[in-house]
Specification:
12 helices; 2 domains; disordered C terminus; alpha/beta; disordered N terminus; single chain; two-stranded parallel sheet; nine-stranded mixed β-sheet; 13 strands; TIM Barrel
Length: about 375
């Protein structure tokens, strides 16, 4: 049965191969059992997919030839499609990635001299509406799956030829969940992906090299610390509820006092692993001496450091970046108060890849279109 006249679409759905990227060890074992392969095949596949980065079953030489043929008949290891790739004059690189449903999200690699961080997105669009953030102008389309979160890292590794995992000469050393979307609103998919990333025989990036940034989804912070143990960054940006209600509207639900209480209770936070408070420097908005002194009082007793972010403009914004002299003075006040407060160097602004500038053109489909699409997807062989 074909609904809505979408014959070609349904046909494609019936013949599509299943993508194994994003599956954990248990799920891979179930897939192997489903096609009559022994459990040890899952361990072999895990190594080839996540450690070696191989995309061609035929090249998985530790597998029997008959198994390789069978895998190719049932599965694929496709990456997201690269819609656009841009490289900044400062060597930052941005990818616009297209997923199976044609929705897109951006991720950015920021290289340093002997290392670098990949900024990964967790959602297409965002629901937080932070007024200084370009991504916040794009309504939430949907969460990214674990496969799509992992796909961003795998595309970056492909681009820099950094397979297998764990190489001493790798440039891509760190991950920051600071791209499009709020990671804690998509925790299950983000957690599943990061556990694969942290696996020593997987993508093999230590939790100490992973930072998850939240705008303040207080109920999920404890779980994040307990299950993942990654570094925590908090988008603070204001020292009063009145201002933060405007800049970061989730503050109306979880005000500063509640947010900071969750920071004090964050598992694993100590002087060696301090919580980072991100603070966008907005001219005449949040950059006064009084603001800096109030921040010192607010975070007292929290193993904390600040990351001062010169505001990165985008088309249509109402904000301006604080003057360099103001930012330096602000940092000095925090330093004198016993807090580390480096000023983040702006990277990739010429390709709209700097902090707060990410966005795609994907839009949430009208309700009727989504319902029709869901109906079509439900059609399977034998329906």
């Amino acid at each position: 049965m074909v609904l809505g006249g979408k014959t070609s679409y349904v046909s494609a759905m019936m013949t599509a191969l299943k993508n194994l990227i994003g599956l954990d060890r248990e799920e891979l074992a179930l897939e192997m059992a489903a096609i009559g392969e022994k459990p040890f095949r899952a361990k072999q596949l895990w190594h080839w997919i996540y450690h070696q980065g191989e995309t061609d079953f035929a090249k998985m030489t530790t597998l029997a030839k008959t198994a390789r043929v069978k895998l190719a008949e049932h599965y694929t290891l496709d990456r997201p499609e690269v819609s656009r790739e841009l490289t900044s004059t400062d060597r930052s690189r941005k990818w616009l990635l297209k997923f199976d449903d044609a929705n897109e999200a951006e991720c950015v690699f920021i290289p340093e001299e002997d290392r670098g961080a990949l900024c990964i997105s967790s959602q297409v669009g965002c629901t937080l509406n932070c007024t200084f953030c370009h991504t916040g102008t794009q309504k939430l389309v949907r969460n990214l799956t674990a496969r799509e979160v992992l796909g961003q890292l795998m595309v970056a590794r492909d681009s820099y030829a950094e397979w297998p995992s764990g190489r001493d000469d790798r440039l891509l050393t760190n991950i920051v969940m600071m791209g499009m979307g709020e990671p804690l609103f998509n925790f299950d998919n983000v957690a599943k992906a990061l556990k694969i990333v942290m696996d020593g025989d997987g993508l093999s990036i230590s939790k100490r090299r992973i930072t998850l940034s939240t705008s303040g989804v207080v109920p999920m912070m404890q779980r994040c610390g307990e299950e993942l143990g990654v570094n925590l960054a908090v988008s603070l940006h204001a020292c009063s509820d009145a201002l933060r209600d405007i800049l970061v509207p989730i503050n109306r639900k979880h005000p500063i006092r509640e947010l900071l209480a969750a920071c004090r209770a964050y598992p694993g936070a100590n002087n060696a692993r301090r919580i980072t408070f991100e603070y966008a420097m907005l001219k005449g908005v949040n950059d006064s001496d009084a603001d800096a002194h109030q921040l010192i009082r607010l975070v007292h007793g929290i193993p904390a450091k600040f990351n001062l972010i010169p505001f990165n403009p985008w088309p249509g914004t109402i904000y301006e970046c604080s003057k360099p002299s103001t930012i330096r003075r602000f940092a000095k006040i925090l330093n004198d108060g016993g807090l580390s407060a480096p000023v983040r160097q702006t990277r990739g602004s010429d390709i709209m890849a700097a902090c707060g500038q990410l966005k795609s053109d994907s839009q949430r489909a009208p309700r009727k279109s989504r319902e029709a699409s869901n109906t079509e997807i439900a059609v399977r062989p034998g329906a």
